Amino acid sequence: MFETLGNRLQGVFDRLRGRGALSEADVSDALREVRVALLEADVALSVVKDITARVRERAVGQEVIRSIQPGQQVIKIVNDALVEALGGNDPGPRGISLEAAAPVAILMVGLQGSGKTTTSGKIALRLKGRERKKVLLASLDVHRPAAQLQLAQLAERAEVTSLPIIAGQTPLQIAERAMDLGRRELYDVVILDTAGRLSIDEALMAEVAAVKQAVTPHETLLVVDAMTGQDAVNTARIFNERVGVTGIVMTRVDGDARGGAALSMRAVTGAPIKLLGAGEKLDALEDFHPDRIANRILGMGDIVSLVERAAETIDQAEAEKLAARMQKGQFSLEDYAQQLKQIGKMGGMSGLMGMLPGVAKVKAQLQDANLDTGMLKRQAAIIGSMTVKERRQPEIIKASRKRRIAAGSGASVQEVNRLLKQFEDMRDMMKRMNKMGQKGMMRGGLA
Ligand code: GDP
């Protein structure tokens, strides 16, 4: 799943990238596309509104990391909003909790065909293998004759025990018998697979609620089919209201489901997604990582980590000083050299073309020059051969000084010229940005 949403958003951000600075209109345009992409991916409207509002608020209000292209920072902001919508800021452990007295009961609930029985087998296999737990599987489905047999077969494949089938028992009786056996034979975990229905009805809810009351399970996991989109979200909402769930397992994420259900799930139900089912095989069970899912949705992990790296690498105090000098129109070749050094620290130029403030125009030239890390070093060497006075007042660098600097740094006079030209372009750009800033159009660089 997630392919469609990822592709849609990719298009939006392709358009955003490569711009030097974003106007408020740019942000609004981008957000309109983000909204459409999310709605098409079947994300609930309320969640879409929430995500776009959060992005807008931050894009406009947040202090901009000075050395990043605004478009890149918007991508990071969208990413963070997605992670939050997916429950990324929840404290506590993900996955299934076994922090209770043994035998720990796990109640599996959901609609028929959601993958509930398969998931019960998957969880049993995982707990047995990874956690070395002694697991008992029991099917409470007395409505479909084949259901109990199906679970028994799954148990065999997972090499765990299943509760012996006794015909004619009620779900409650089976549940109690399972817990009893669990206690007597010192099982760590008892997984109770309840009956499903094709759609939600009161009888099903009452049955599940009664079992839950009787065994007070430590986890009540709702299994939903990602392919059913918004229906899965509604199912989850109703199950949660009626019986209360501690977590959600989303199945068939290996299919071409639109990713929206995952995004809505947390916000609409309040219950966290704990696991993902990604195939029919018993080992096709994945932990749910909001950041990884957001990355899969956006497909922009490289840029997100770039922005994170920049935020870490760039010395904010240094950036403040630089900004103050820029404000006064005092950007010097020393500052330029400082920025080259920062870029070097961040791992060279590839993918980092937009790192310098106001670089849009210069960028094309830099690309023409096919700038790489070697080039960075040469530029730094050229600046290194200048006197302090030359660095602070590049206007005084005329032909004879250029020859001296070139000789001193092992560069050609053309290279010195190119560097000076780039620096001038950048300084002009900054002056213009400053003027705009004073008119209040560029607050934070994004608004
Ligand atoms: P239940 O009625 O909710 O117990 O559903 P089942 O566990 O019987 O699953 C119904 C069908 O979905 C079976 O054919 C499973 O193999 C299949 N299934 C379950 N989980 C997944 C999954 O994560 N991915 C895929 N592709 N198929 C799944």
Can you walk me through this structure?
The structure is a single chain. The chain has helices spanning 3-16, 24-40, 45-61, 70-85, 116-129, 145-158, 171-184, 202-215, 230-242, 260-269, 290-298, 301-313, 316-327, 333-345, 360-368, 373-384, 388-392, 399-409, 413-438, and strands at 104-110, 135-139, 161-162, 189-193, 219-225, 247-251, 273-277, 285-287. It folds into three domains: 3-90 and 298-303, SRP54, nucleotide-binding domain (Four Helix Bundle (Hemerythrin (Met), subunit A), Up-down Bundle); 104-288, Rossmann fold, CATH 3.40.50.300; 315-445, Signal recognition particle, SRP54 subunit, M-domain (434 Repressor (Amino-terminal Domain), Orthogonal Bundle). With 447 residues, it is an alpha/beta fold. The protein is built from 19 helices and eight strands. The longest helix is centred in the C-terminal third of the chain and has 26 residues, at 413-438. The protein has an eight-stranded mixed β-sheet, with helices on both faces. The radius of gyration is 30 Å and the shape is elongated. The structure holds guanosine-5'-diphosphate. Guanosine-5'-diphosphate is lined by residues 110, 112-118, 196, 251-252, 254-255, 277-280, 284.
